[in-house]
């Protein structure tokens, strides 16, 4: 009879209509120094079209380690990861994105770090994939101090804090999921991980940063794409605000009502002009002052947060 948890590590990977990226992700897992019988991959398709799902299944069938493909119709990475957790058979669960390329020692490094901190989460380091042409905005965005990854701001590598619960490259013992799971009300791939990290931190989870657990982000990001992400961040932050009202005391997390007078029509026009300027300059490889990136992104985040609050009040 097969033991219920017969692998040291389960790699849970949500995916949606990105068969090529997922194929490269699985290829990188084939090159691991960790023996194939010590880990598995659990791929959770989150609503891909039929052709993409077929391609995902073909790629999964070509791996050298146990790989399962699940279909989760409830949209959002939170639901997909929860399904992956339920189906996994590893003693420890590692979350990767479908656009994440594991370095050859990634899985072994996660287990090595976990041996010294067995009850902790292990946060790996995610850098840009070396084959990407990095734009000035991408260099600002990550990995050291930007709004996507900001590893250089970790004050204590032995206790990073919930803000660094990055599901692009983090592992933790499965016992923590007996206490908390991802909140499936988060519709986007934004804040659903920080929310879980916050709840687990309150339960006693500590996140340890292990830079040698290296992966690469195989995803070129345009400025306009990240502006839309900030709109999603504003919507998601309202849910976090309702769940954790104590966070409202930190203006770096929850926008205050004092921002409302700044949301004028004139400022909206200025921000649209600056956003167009940034997008054009970035496509040509011309860097602009970081404060311009920050102003536009913060504007979209705050505007989306307050607009979502208003819609809720009107509806309720």
Describe what this molecule looks like in 3D.
- The structure is a single chain.
- This protein is an alpha/beta fold.
- The chain is built from 9 helices and 8 strands.
- An 8-stranded mixed β-sheet has the order 3-2-1-4-7-6-8-5.
- Helix 1 links the parallel strand 1 and strand 2 (39-45).
- The longest helix is centred in the last third of the chain and has 26 residues, at 290-315.
What brief labels describe this structure?
single chain, 316 residues, alpha/beta, Spore Coat Polysaccharide Biosynthesis Protein SpsA, Chain A, 2 domains, eight-stranded mixed β-sheet, 41% helix
Summarize the structure.
With 316 residues, this protein is of the alpha/beta class. Helices cover 41% and strands 18% of the residues. The protein has helices at 19-30, 50-61, 77-87, 106-116, 136-141, 192-202, 223-243, 265-284, 290-315; strands at residues 7-15, 39-45, 66-71, 90-96, 100-102, 121-128, 169-173, 207-217.
């Amino acid at each position: 009879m097969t033991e219920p948890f017969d692998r040291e590590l389960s790699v849970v990977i949500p995916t949606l209509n990105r068969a090529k990226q997922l194929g490269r992700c699985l290829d990188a897992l084939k090159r691991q120094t960790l023996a194939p019988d010590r880990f598995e991959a659990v791929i959770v398709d989150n609503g891909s079209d039929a052709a993409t799902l077929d391609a995902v299944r073909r790629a999964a069938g070509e791996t050298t380690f146990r790989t399962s493909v699940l279909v989760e119709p409830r949209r959002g990475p939170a639901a997909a990861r929860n399904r992956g957790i339920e189906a996994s058979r590893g003693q420890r669960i590692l979350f990767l994105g479908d656009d994440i390329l594991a370095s050859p020692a990634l899985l072994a490094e996660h287990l090595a770090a976990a041996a010294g901190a067995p009850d902790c989460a292990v946060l790996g380091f995610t850098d840009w994939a070396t084959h990407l042409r990095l734009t000035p905005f991408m260099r600002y965005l990550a990995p050291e101090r930007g709004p996507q990854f900001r590893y250089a701001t970790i004050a204590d590598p032995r206790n990073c804090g919930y803000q660094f619960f990055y599901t692009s490259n983090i592992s933790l013992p499965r016992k923590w999921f007996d206490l908390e799971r991802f909140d499936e009300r988060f519709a986007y791939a934004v804040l659903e991980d920080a929310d879980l990290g916050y709840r687990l931190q309150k339960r006693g989870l500590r996140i340890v940063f292990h830079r040698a657990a290296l992966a690469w982000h195989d995803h070129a990001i345009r400025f306009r794409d990240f502006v839309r992400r900030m709109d999603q961040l504003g919507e998601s932050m309202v849910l976090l605000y309702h769940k954790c009202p104590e966070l409202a005391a930190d203006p770096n997390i929850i926008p205050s009502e004092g921002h409302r007078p700044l949301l004028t029509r004139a400022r909206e026009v200025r921000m649209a002009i600056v956003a167009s300027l940034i997008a054009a300059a970035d496509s040509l490889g011309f860097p602009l002052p970081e404060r311009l990136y920050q102003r536009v992104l913060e504007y979209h985040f705050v505007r989306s947060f307050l607009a979502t609050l208003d819609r809720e009040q009107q509806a309720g």
